[in-house]
Amino acid sequence: MIPLGAFVAVSAALFFIGVAGVLVRRNAIVILMCVELMLNATNLALVAFSRRGGIPDERGSVFVIFIFVIAAAEVAVGLAIILALYRNRPTVDVDEVHAMKG
Amino acid sequence: MTQFVWLIPALPLAAFLVNGLFGRRWLGHLTGWIATGAVGISALLAIGVFIDVLRGAERTTVVLYRWIGVGEFKIDVAAYIDPLSSVMLLVVTVVGTLIFVFANGYMAHDHGLPRFFTWFSLFVFAMLILVMADNYLLMFVGWEGVGLCSYLLIGYWFQNPAPQHAANKAFWMNRIGDWGYTIGMVTIFLVFGSLNFTDVFEKVGIATQANLTLICVALFVGATGKSAQLPLHSWLPDAMEGPTPVSALIHAATMVTAGVYLVARSTPLFVAAGPSLQIVAVVGAVTAIFAATIALVQFDIKRVMAYSTVSQLGYMFLACGVGAPGAAIFHLATHAFFKALLFLGSGSVIHAMGNEQDMRKMGGLRRKMPVTYWTMLVAGGALAAIPPLAGFWSKDEIVGAAFLSGQTLLWAIGILTAVLTAFYVTRAMWMTFHGEPRDHHLYDHAHESPTVMTLPLALLAVGSAVLGVVIGFPPDQGFIHSFLRPAVEVEGAVEHTAEVGTILALAAVSVGAGVLGIALGVLMYVRGRPDPAAVTRASGPIYRILVNKYYIDELYDQRILGLGRAFFGALWAFDVHVIDGIANGIGRLASVGGSGARRFQTGVVGNYALTVVVGLFVVLVAYGGYAAGVFKR
Fold this sequence. Notes:
The complex is a heterodimer of chains A (102) and B (633). Chain A is mainly α. Chain A has helices at 4-24, 28-52, 59-88. Chain A has one domain: Helix Hairpins. The longest helix of chain A has 30 residues, at 59-88. The N and C termini of chain B lie far apart (90 Å). Classes of the chains: A mainly alpha (102), B mainly alpha (633).
């Protein structure tokens, strides 16, 4: 049986890949994908703890369903924003979009 | 009649409102007659009130409404009608009416006439509040009101710099006096728990000597400011920059006597506080002779009269100080008539000479202006205390009271001042009306004033001539004395009585002083022996001191105002560098902080994300540390 630690390790690795992607990439679509990666890393951790935690608890698995919904909603809104951005100025590079600079 | 007493100030107030609101646009020259009518009706009402008091209605309080009622602190807007205030009401309204009539002629060609009569009516209102008040606070309202109107009317011709400066000077010097009044008033409340005249005078006994002295000295500081006594006298001569009717009503007949009225009203306090009366007497006597000496060498006809007013007010304070407040009020009443007449006569002359006030350019005017000449002659005689004119009876009584109270030095000063007074009156009259015209151009254009101006002169002349005999004869037992006695008499005060022989001898010395002064004046100015110019040369340094008014203005300007400027300059620097520094520093902190903080707002999404991650990391580490017990003690 795969130990709990392995799941957590993979989850953490995925999460930090996502974080790194959000921080270093400039393409808005890629950033959105990295956010998805972070969310799914969280899902993996939740499912792992739900099944292999000291006290098995199905509520962890249920929580994952909520995160799916939120992730879907987030992608819908995020892609809509990126689309609107691309129509206004032909770029999806976030560094070039700094109209809000103080 | 007494129940209608509030109509007396209400009518001038109404005239003020009507003239102030509608005067400039709609009423024009009608404002003058509206104001005059209002004051005239007030005068009739004041006569009615006076008759009521005469018939035995002494000491009536007519409450209009409660003004302040906080715990034990109760102030009513109430009129206190007793012999003293009824005499003051009469003087203010009767002399006021005559001066208002005169002003209609004098100001006829002035474009600001509605404004003039607006402030003039307000002045009468404030003055009536001052004399009617039944407590020190309401009196202070009137006190400040007359000060304000004095300021506004001195600066009536505000287009010129001299009236502006004179108005400011009057205002600031009066502020010093008002400061004294306020100290006195607050101390009275702290000591007696009331500001009501009757309450305070009943409870005089509970105050310590030190408290009473503080109260009286503070009130007297207020009186010196308003009544132009040393050392706060120098605003009054400068106040002659205002129109002449203003000088007559405010700066001779009524407002400047407010200080005398205050001291006379507070007689119970002053008598109980021993040494303060002596201060009043000495300041009064010194001011009397001081101002009379300056009046000797002035060439501006109004300034002669102004210094004369300061000097006569000194007499009134001398009377209060030697325990004869009745004589002070008597002199106040006669002085109101003859000094108002002298000012109006001067105004008539100035009007005829095309606004020329320098007596060196006058002369010979008696042929051109007979009514002005003869009326002013009566007033001048009254001022010089020639019997049987009004001024003789009142001044003689004051000087006599000084003698009988044992203060021979003050008596001597009073007599010497009487000589000087008679001399400068003679000089002014001769330079203005006698001799040959010195400026033929002005003389040829001179003319007698219209009836609207000469009629008040004639009526005031009648008052100046007979008032003394009518109300002040025989000396010390006349009508005015028995009438005022209930108001100003204090139990335990020393009553000075004298033999008939002594009184006659004192009167003879007074008359002698007046005759001597006139004789000297006639010798110098009519005969020219000694020649005035020669006397001027011979008395070189003394003359210079007198012409420069003892250098008092220079002293104030350089020494006291210099100190003030240094002190307030330091305060200003403190304000600019420290106070403003702190305020601006706080402002700059926000500005600098803001411009630092706006660097975070890069607009680059990556930076925001990094901040989020770093923040999350910090929170997680802190939480982990907390959970692991790192922060537990």
